[in-house]
Amino acid sequence: MHSFTEENYIKAIYKLLESGDETISTNAIAEKMRTKAASVTDMLKKLAAKKLINYQKYQGVSLTGKGEKIALNIIRKHRLWEMFLVEKFNFKWDEVHDVAEQLEHIQSDKLIEELDKFLNYPKTDPHGDPIPDAKGKLLVRKSKSLSQFRVNDVCIMTGVVDHSPAFLQYLDKTGFQLGNEIKIKDSVEFDKSLQIIVSKKNTFFISYDVAKNILVILK
Amino acid sequence: MHSFTEENYIKAIYKLLESGDETISTNAIAEKMRTKAASVTDMLKKLAAKKLINYQKYQGVSLTGKGEKIALNIIRKHRLWEMFLVEKFNFKWDEVHDVAEQLEHIQSDKLIEELDKFLNYPKTDPHGDPIPDAKGKLLVRKSKSLSQFRVNDVCIMTGVVDHSPAFLQYLDKTGFQLGNEIKIKDSVEFDKSLQIIVSKKNTFFISYDVAKNILVILK
DNA sequence: ATAAATTTTTAGACTAATCTAAATTTTATT
DNA sequence: AATAAAATTTAGATTAGTCTAAAAATTTAT
Asked: Which value does ipTM take for this structure?
């Protein structure tokens, strides 16, 4: 249907659009795809010809309905496979990305249906990211960054912003898990670092940088 | 490491060599790969440069040790995935091939280790084909074609030669399964067709063509 | 053993995806 | 509003894999 490369561009465009803007730039895509702007322009022409993106020279890029549907399907597959690897194959949440990146391109509707069923229709992946359903419907999370809360707020950890192994391993080491209760004990005005109590037991100091990358909802 | 295309050539060469000959021809590979001889020649040069095949112009092709190891690893992955699809995802044995053909190229040692463990280290795939172990060791089957046996021989079905959905569905419909006992009741000299009793219950007439494609061992 | 047939390889071209360098357009700055 | 800076696109090359048509080597047949 579409090449791996096309799928990867579509996914990159989707993810860039997710962060708010109406359209995104050639350079932004080039950076995300770790390629050069000239290569991106070529691909944009191709995707526009296939009606997967809205694209006019120099005017930025957005996805068509068709393109968005493809993006959501790839993300669905990626997140289901991540869940599978963690739940069934003893992968850690910091180990799944590269393999899921490959598995997300496997073409088989039956495979994905069975995968979803096998996992008992999970709503989120191991990082707390929502899994689009078979129709491409995606639950919007109401989570906010822990850094936006104040002293004495009690929250539940629901996800992460940064998905890098380094950050995920840091969370593992300090014992953070999705679903944990986090109470903000104190806040340092100078560097916005926080003192928090996790699961009513463990007290930690975390930097503003860490707090920004932890997603929570108010309890 | 190696491209999907390279892996597919290596696998095709391995399978052609399996059927006996010391070396195989450019045309044979072209037919198997559904491509043209000229394309094959180009790829042979590339694989020879990577020392995966032994190749001298006009002199046929064989695999080097390195090439054979790669082939066995791809076959290992293919067969483990087939087993997984049938055992865990409700695929029929005639439905697995295309998906396994994609999954066999996924690169992750941990994934394959866990897959093998998850399936409890199976020795054969859903078609009875042996699964190479992690070191590339492959059990050689002593099975022979049912067509080589005589009246009153009692055999156990261990595999199939033809893997086409049409043939596998025919076997399903008539109720053949791996492990079934097959007793040869009668043989028609004219067309070499057989009358057989499966599992001491069901009597069938099968053509020579079908008999040739059923692998068995003497009970 | 020579000619004919077949197989295989080479030559040259094509597509997809990429790149560098140059040209063009847009945006920002004075 | 003119110009400088930045972003984007075009032009032309490159690599992997494929193709057709022609050339070369091998095999088969007389």
From this structure: 0.92
Q: How confident is the model at residue B176 (pLDDT cuts 50, 70, 90)?
A: very high
Is the Cβ of A100 closer than 8 Å to some Cβ of chain B?
Answer: no
CA atoms within 13 A on the CB side of B174: 18
Rounded to a whole number of angstroms, the distance from the CA of B56 to the nearest CA of chain A is 34
- What's residue B28's pLDDT? 96
- Domains of chain B are 4-63 (1.10.10.10), 76-140 (1.10.10.10), 144-218 (2.30.30.90)
Residue A20 to residues A140, B57, B208, Cα–Cα distance (Å): 13, 59, 67
Residue pair A5/A43 in contact (Cβ under 8 Å)? The answer is yes
Amino acid A213: pLDDT = 97
User: How much is the pLDDT for B135?
Assistant: 95
Q: How buried is B27 (Cβ within 10 angstroms: 0-12 exposed, 13-18 middle, 19+ buried)?
A: exposed
B115: its two tokens: 């897959």
Q: Which residue of A has its CA nearest to B103?
A: A106
**What does B128-178 look like in DSSP terms, one character per residue?**
SPBPP-TT---PPP--EEGGG--TT-EEEEEEES---HHHHHHHHHHT--T
Rounded CA separation A11/A28 (Å)? 13
Mutate which: A1, A111, A112, vs B, most B CBs within 10 A: A111
As a whole number of angstroms, the distance between CA B4 and CA B10 comes to: 10
Asked if B199 and B127 touch (Cβ cutoff 8 Å), the reply is no
Give a three-class secondary structure readout of A52-102.
CEEECCCCCEEECHHHHHHHHHHHHHHHHHHHHHHHHCCCCCCCCHHHHHH
Is the pLDDT confidence value at B1 over 90? no
